[in-house]
Fold each of these.
Amino acid sequence: MQSVNVTNVEQESLNPYEIVQKQIETAASILKLPENITEILKRPKRVLTVNYAVKMDDGSIEVFEGYRSQHNDALGPTKGGIRFHPDVTLDEVKALSMWMTFKCGVVGLPYGGGKGGVIADPRHYSLAEKERMSRGFMEAIADFVGPDKDIPAPDVYTNAQVMGWMMDTYSKMKGKFSPGVITGKPLSIGGSQGRNEATARGCVITIKEALKELDLPVENVTVAIQGFGNAGRIASRLLADLGCKIVAISDSQGGIYHSEGLDVDDVCVCKDESSISNYTAVERHITSDELLELDVDVLIPAALENVITSQNAERVKAKVIAEAANGPCTPEADKILNKNGTLVIPDILANAGGVTVSYFEWVQNLANYYWTEEEVNDRLQQKMTTAYNEVKEISEKYAVDRRTGAFMISLLRISEAMKARGWV
Ligand SMILES: NC(=O)C1=CN([C@@H]2O[C@H](COP(=O)(O)OP(=O)(O)OC[C@H]3O[C@@H](n4cnc5c(N)ncnc54)[C@H](O)[C@@H]3O)[C@@H](O)[C@H]2O)C=CC1
Ligand SMILES: O=C(O)CCC(=O)C(=O)O
């Protein structure tokens, strides 16, 4: 288990499973929830581990280990993405499924939380190998998931194409077209308008609300973004369109900085060709860690967990942190950021736009009736602003940080459902 040394305080855990348990305990203790509710919510209900063989292009076989965790289904079927990453662990997938439960609760979706992960780096495989790896994982988990049971979606290093392959495999196995088994699909096979942009769009909605609260005009606000994939890249474009200055961006290879603002479209062209670290129209190249400590108005961690810890939180200068990524700040970092007056929009709120439009996609699949992009975006706007203001209200009422407030809202909704079902 990972941990870092912290002077004068206990060792800081970087295990996401321990972190989410701590977050649940903090919120539950303020609400004085009965212990049996917390005990149920502190661990996933079901976890599946699979090992499956994939034939490589050269005829060799590689065996991949993957997981699917279903945390809690009191509010409805479990829901959450599938990640392909070399550093995936079982504890990480469990934690991500738990964050999904609380995320769905914050935005009031009729879902519990699930998550999947495969230990693999898809960047090292050909398209055909990636297809077999994706289909193989769905084949291995097909009896565990389903449109009214557990509905996957994209996450790190998976995308609409991967969802399309997985939906096709599931449909073939069940002998019927089953678009509702997975969301984030290509539009031609039951994907929703707006799903590809939804995580970033939802995040930008919360940033606009936060800036309003801080009396900061959106125009010319400076922004640094760590991670330039689905969440980070689209957020950069949406914010640039609003007149924000995107001064720093990084991906897994490194980062770039320009105090006058980067040309986001140009950076996208460079990223499509290689990595943004090869982009030359910059003031300087920076590391992804340096990016976190820049003097900017808004910081968007949009890559992986545990990037802001007790080790660097004191040096973070942003006024607002919008957690597009899941779990970027540890509880120790939260304490420091709160003491310093940083407004942290927690992951379970800031990145809830993705699962919200996934829910819209699933609803459209079940009804076999499709909405316009405008309808999707209007409904997303409504859900995100309502959730933002509910979190703000409860946080102010109980004098807690926004993460604790967001967990409290969810805990109230989930515990009510658990009681209504007679579980507690
Ligand atoms: N895709 C979605 O709909 C949602 C994604 N999220 C979260 O957003 C985060 C990013 O996910 P996506 O954008 O979907 O993944 P993605 O696979 O589209 O992009 C990931 C990006 O992170 C970069 N990256 C990886 N390691 C990095 C590092 N050490 N430093 C800087 N950049 C690094 C990659 O180069 C890539 O640009 C994850 O935490 C994910 O769980 C949350 C909600 C929904
Ligand atoms: O769209 C979804 O169902 C879930 C996306 C996801 O994995 C997340 O919100 O972390």
Amino acid sequence: MQEKGNISIHTENIFPVIKKFLYSDNEIFLRELVSNAVDATQKLKRLSSLGQFTGDLGDTTIEISFDEQAKTITISDKGIGMTAEEVKKYINQIAFSGATEFVEKFKEAKDANEIIGRFGLGFYSAFMVADKVEIQTLSYQEGAQAAKWICDGSTSYEISDSDKTTRGTDVILYINKESEEFLNKARLEEILAKYCRFLPVPIKFGTKTTSEPDGEDEEGKPKYKSVEVDNIINNTNPAWTKAPADLKDEDYLAFYRELYPFAEEPLFWIHLNVDYPFNLTGILYFPKIKNDFDLQRNKIKLFSRQVFITDEVKDIVPEFLMLLHGVIDSPDIPLNVSRSFLQADSNVKRISNYITKKVADKLGELFKTDRKAFEEKWKDIGLFVKYGMVSEDKFAEKASDFVLLQTVDHEFFTLKEYAEKVKDIQKDKHDHVIYLYASDMTKQDSFITTAKDKGYDVLLFDSPIDGHFVSYLEQKTEKTQLKRVDSDVLNKLIQKEDDKQLALSEEESGAIKTLFEKAIQKENMKVEVAALGEDEMPVTVTMDEFMRRMKDMAQQGGGMGFYGALPDNYKVSVNGNHPLIKRILTSTDEAEKENLAKQAFDLALLSNGLLTGAELTQFVKRSVSLID
Ligand SMILES: Nc1ncnc2c1ncn2[C@@H]1O[C@H](COP(=O)(O)OP(=O)(O)OP(=O)(O)O)[C@@H](O)[C@H]1O
């Protein structure tokens, strides 16, 4: 039999378009062809298990080989094969049924992935790297005649009998000039490792040398010899495809190491396994996060029936879950479509919700079963939980039971427990409960100490997400405000009915204010006289909570550019009840007055970590002269 014909498409010559347009992503040709080989093998296995194929399955290893001289790459399988009729039907027609649409749409598509799958062009991706493609195939059906198909990248093909005697299909690519990089062992190995590492049928690529036991030497020690064995590049049975009941912790950890050989051990993991209403399997690992958000992203690998698709799962899992590692495998995620389409897809939404729920359930369970261990891991989990809460309402609902607030004394409380703990003592005269927090225990030490001396509790919010989390908590908790310990003097942060009275007259107060303004001489420092306890600091420098939050947001690119441009404004609270202030007032020596005011102010700056450079030098000099 010999036949020539034209591939049934309306467009004159589609291959140059494919080739040119898809050039950047052309390595996926191998993924497509190996996937077809795997499908053909799996189909035969299924027929065999259904009793529709009674022959011997034999070794079904798929083989990838290349010939540098002949400039060919060959993908051989021992699957169902095709008859000439089937080649005509599947290769010539089916693959191009969407061709007209393709030609219209290809201009919009952004990468090869989008086109290849969307238009069923899997096989034709071969033409991205080949000038000519040949198929040699023998169907599994009894008495089938082997067929040969050749196409040189134009729309015409040639089909004839082949002398192939073994079942299955060989696809031979005659690699074009621009794609000769693929005629290279290391490059092919790299692509196979990327896309085919967990395919369910063994894939052989050349051979490798290993050592095998070879009896004993004269001294009775074991001997080894080198042997050449098939180089099988894939693990056909990765952990996520197994039943959770069949896996031990070691298996999960071993699989983690297989995926990320250099990563630290994960904290724990979740095995996803669902059939209905969508099919999804996978294992998600919780890594140790350690505050380095960005490094952690893009670690989840997306597979479809064990074929690697991408590690950009941005639109499939919620943003905060991007911090997780591991794999998800779902044939129900529409793969090769545009991102905006993905977001609107109902399966994708369901999958995303499902994963979110699973993760929340797992965390809830850990918290319930072993709170101590949960607290110990909080440094890593906390960031993740808070990120989840501020970004996903559904997650927040569940997580509000186990999100922990950590105090500066390293104690942990749930939201409920904490509210209970501080509800009386930290209630102000307006009936608001004030949560005090620190973001830097070293820098804010003097403020923390003052608050603790008063019997107040101080939370620690020192992770990158805490700025957002603080606003979130405030929104979600009624009649509760969060204030950083250094955002004002304490009795302004939590105002009580029985607040201290100022021991100074209005006149004295005014005099002190003027004196300090003169001593400080800084436009961004606003002086105010406050009535604090005698044992509190004589001068305190603070930055307003609102102002600081806006500035923080501007710094993080949160759109508060206006605030970002403002200078850092501080409030200088002079404690009118402090003995030092009285001493300054009563002193008759103008120089001493100014010196003491400067000294008290510098001490306040010093305890905020704001005293540097020439000012610090002057302070040290002045201090020396004071103790002289
Ligand atoms: N190695 C093979 N053995 C047997 N049949 C094959 C082989 N490769 C391709 N085919 C047949 O050709 C058809 C078209 O293949 P093609 O890769 O273009 O599309 P697909 O595999 O159906 O879909 P896609 O690759 O886009 O997911 C296949 O459905 C299959 O019937």
Amino acid sequence: MSPSAQSIWKDVEQIRSQAPLIQNITNFVVMNNTANALLALGASPAMVHAPDEVEDFIAIASALVVNIGTLDPNFVTGMRLAMKRAKLLKKPIVFDPVGVGATPYRNQVSRALLDLAAPTIIRGNASEIMALAGLNAQTKGVDSTHGSEAALDSARQLSRHFGGVVVISGADDYVVYQDRVAVIGNGHPLMTKVTGMGCTATALIGAFVAVNPDAFQAAVHGMCVMGIAGELAARKTPSPGSLQVSFLDTLYQLTADQIQKTVKLTNQ
Ligand SMILES: Nc1ncnc2c1ncn2[C@@H]1O[C@H](COP(=O)(O)OP(=O)(O)O)[C@@H](O)[C@H]1O
Ligand SMILES: Cc1ncsc1CCOP(=O)(O)O
Ligand SMILES: [Mg+2]
């Protein structure tokens, strides 16, 4: 079934009623932002990265979100253990290759993690998706220097190689799986002035894939809700500080009617 306003809302209701536990191994910059976004959506976040406990924790979680934003060797050990165990237990993995392409360390670690345990869904900006696919893409640290459509071929290649869903975020978001592409036109440029909005998108996708076994649908639903909440929040404020708060409030209060009236989703 193609994703639609109705299927988005069904998953939002599932998340609100089930409150799935989402294990996050994520960066120090966004831990608070993404935990609050998951709570506002209705999920139950836990930021757990110690190598001594990640394997036990994934056993009780419904999905694993791995984000390489503030990488160090201890994090990498935790990521490897958690991803391997998640695979074994058939728990979905969502991977955010923050800043890949910026340094050889990020490239090596990302590639090794993908080879160790192919994620269910990968979400990055255009430069990150292109770098992950092996292109010598210019990246500006954690920000993209390309429009999202420039990474479409790279996303298809990654999806074929790892067998999972690939999301490219940007002014338009693309969700790619094999021959399928969905385009989401929601969002607002002000979202790029709040740190961690991409990481938040990845974390929200983690909640959707925890309640929906169709990973393509889950990724589309996550990006639609992210974009709709950002767009509605930006109608209330012109500045980034208050956008951050308004985004959480909008997410918490999101209704079926708002989704129906705001969603800009094209299934290709
Ligand atoms: N120019 C834009 N217009 C509308 N929405 C945007 C724009 N740029 C980013 N977004 C939205 O902001 C969120 C974060 O995406 P992005 O900025 O691409 O991630 P990252 O922070 O990882 O680079 C996504 O939901 C995306 O749709
Ligand atoms: C600024 C920064 N530096 C290391 S991780 C991080 C957060 C990046 O978040 P996002 O990719 O969502 O903008
Ligand atoms: Mg990012």
